Amino acid sequence: MTKAKPSKAEICRRYKITAGTLTAWQAEGIDIHDEQAMAERNSRKHKSSGEELFDARLKKLKAEAVSATLKAAQLEGTLIDLAEAKTAIARIGAITKSLMLRMQADLPPALEGQSPSRMAKIIGQAVEAILTQLSDPEGLPWHE
């Protein structure tokens, strides 16, 4: 025995659509008795213009809230501008390069004639001096 097909009214209730919508879907070629086709088409229902307007306003409010949060964080000093960060990194790189080149020039005369253990100590002190200078932001030449 075959199962009776649901009436149009039952289909409308099941998918929470109007009879006009059901007729429009039939005109699109949807088989209203194919549950999979109906479920897929129902998932693509268009929102009303009121719902679309509400969604647009909600998205705008969320974007404004994120923007205000970022501006507040920047004013508090907990967020810096990307361009400022890139500039600071470039300056640190330039300073590090300069200090390393200076160490390359200073070390050979200091190491000449020294024992390996004394050489290791001299090199360690030179590296420590560079790291100390880099870790003190107020001691760096680009500190504002």
- Backbone CA Rg: 36 Å
* Main sheet properties: none
Averaged pLDDT: 86
What percent of residues are in strands? under 5%
Total helical segments: 6
Properties at a glance:
144 residues; 3 domains
List the SSEs and their pairings.
Layout: H1 8-15, H2 19-27, H3 35-42, H4 49-76, H5 82-111, H6 116-135
Summarize this, please?
By secondary structure, this protein is mainly alpha-helical. The chain contains 6 helices and no strands. It is elongated, with a radius of gyration of 36 Å.
Question: What does this protein structure show overall?
Answer:
- By secondary structure, the chain is mostly helical.
- The chain folds into 3 domains: 8-42, no CATH class; 47-79; 82-139, no CATH class.
- The chain is built from 6 helices and no strands.
- Helix 5 packs antiparallel against helix 6 (116-135).
- The longest helix has 30 residues, at 82-111.
- The termini are far apart.
